[in-house]
Design a protein that fits this description.
The chain is α/β, with parallel strands linked by helices and 207 residues long. 43% of the residues lie in helices and 13% in strands. The chain has nine helices and seven strands, in the order ααβαβαβαβββααβαα. The strands form two sheets. It has a five-stranded parallel β-sheet with strand order 2-3-6-1-7. It has a two-stranded antiparallel ribbon with strand order 4-5. α4 links the parallel β2 and β3. α2 crosses α9.
Amino acid sequence: ARNLKLWKLILEIIRPQDIKLIMEIIWNLITGSNPHKKLFVFMGIPDTRKTTMMEIFTWIIGIENFSKEDPKKFLGKNNQFSTSQFVGKRGNLFDEIGNLTKEMIENQKAMVGGITQDTEAKNAQTRQPFDPKRFTFIYGTNTLGNNFSQLADDKSIITRFEIIPFEKPVKKMNGMWESEFFNDADDKQSAINTIVNIVIQFKRSQY
């Protein structure tokens, strides 16, 4: 029998019209690809379980496949080589990006839509390329701030930033909710397997 526990939780958190986007993200992460070169922003007031959704991704894909870098650190000035922490990962999760400057938004857009780039200085022995088509940025925020609003008419921004509203606040979950949610490790694994199967079926139905 399918264990729909985790799937039902996702349906509780996400608006029905956005569930396809969540499946798209999970597919990107499973396959290590981001063909549409998009980043995803979970936007909503506190306690709408944005972080919970990110945690679910880490359970499905494995936490070791994610970096958790603050975009303010790698989008600021003088940071052209800071994508090295993304090499070998499938995505970057950060749960409160706050108000990015216009320059940071432009840099992030360029990073997502760009071509494969070197992560180290030109003469370094350890050069490894960072390919944005194989990587997904996922952020959470309460508000995207004025700078984003001012850029929101820019078609190139809108095509890269996919904003998913989180609109259903719940009472605060304690940090141990995961151990209360699943009966045991097998329960958790079967719930994860069910999600993966649902996503695969969804992708098959698209072709």
